[in-house]
Amino acid sequence: MDKTPSWGIEPVPERLRVLGLLDTFLLWGNLGISLLVLVLPAYFDLSLDRALLAMVVGGLIGNALLALAGMIGADGRVPTMVLQRAPLGQRGSYIATVLNVLQCLGWAIFELIVIATAAGLLSEKLLGFQGRWLWTLLFGGLATALAFLGPVGFVRRYVRKVAVWAVVASLVYLTWWILDGAGGHSLWSEKGHQGSFWVAVDIVIAVTVSWAPLVADYTRFTRSRKAAFLGVGLGYLLPTFFQFGFGSVLVLSRGVDPAHPELILTAIAGGGLAAALALLALTVDETDEAFADVYSTAVSLQNLLPRVPQRLLIGLSAALATGGALLIDFRQYEAFLFLLGSFFVPLLGVLVADWLLRGARYDPQDIFAGPAVRPFQVAAWLVGFGLYQWLSPAGPSWWLDLWEGASPRPIDFSASLPSFAAAFVLALLAGALERALSSRLAEAGVGAGG
Description:
Layout: H1 21-32, H2 48-76, H3 80-83, H4 85-88, H5 90-127, H6 132-181, H7 197-209, H8 212-219, H9 225-254, H10 263-269, H11 273-304, H12 310-327, H13 331-341, H14 344-357, H15 364-368, H16 375-391, H17 397-403, H18 416-443
Helix pairs in contact: 1-6, 1-9, 2-7, 2-8, 2-9, 2-14, 5-6, 5-11, 5-12, 5-13, 6-9, 6-11, 6-12, 11-12, 14-16, 14-18, 16-18
């Protein structure tokens, strides 16, 4: 068995880069399956044909961006938040790190709530008691144990032997359950939908790119850039198509309320033994996401606290997530997570621009020997974020009130693509300006500061 050490912020050595194309594909195929993503098409309010087209367009764009982020991670061989030192500077990367820690902890809490709810429904059906608090503690402990394995151990000891079969079982049952419930509905001919095609595309892109702040935490252990690009891109693309495709059928045929996505668990649990087994498989499968969020919280924190042992940070992250799942009303935090998520689309644009300016190759000096802050790149990132929020404000009510009257959405188009493009172009210009200035200072004998 492979034992992966708690590798910190230093570049992963070649001897530990052992995840091949199949390993990476299986990892991201498992991470891509999340039960409650099935209900997101309820926000589309589109006919089935337009919903499926939005799925294809958003899926291809989002997964291309995620695959590119994964390839850059394999190139740099460091965690995502450490990788941000190259475009933003060491202290500049701390801004992204804090945002990502808040995001990962929030989603870890969310996943544990989902898992405990599913397990509670299953135990109530089979044993006569729900005990959601007990399942929260148990699965919080399981997520901790999986995070201690690290990415290599997680893939080879858990994904290959357990999780991949749970995914297959859950997908088979969900496919039957969704199509069976769609019987008798003329979904293709339904009219009266008033949703925006590009808003639907944006939802698909946003869900996919939400993994970009985590992806290098895992692809740093991948053998090659090609394996990372194809493994991440194809591994996550297939679940994207399944969830948004069959999810569109689900919400149109069963009228799922996106405000109460947990009710889908109750609906699945309403069947017989097959439903109970499917719910068990889904519960096991959902644990992948809890693992990823706990592990990436700890790895991100190491960018701020490189001397603190990773295992201690994993334990702390898991304890906070488990406690949050027991105590927090997630709906009060969910809108804040949407606000945090809108930071990471333009941040990816800045990262890609900087990587291309360095010849599409990162070496350790690019990451660890740069300035404390690169203000022009930070500004490019924040401009991209501002454009995203101007086009499509997302966040708590107090945040939306700030944008009221200032966000006319003059065109019906994606917020993600303009946000990414603006940050990308501005970062390219900023990088070119920095290089020109550095060259002139060098010619004048002043010296450049990196």
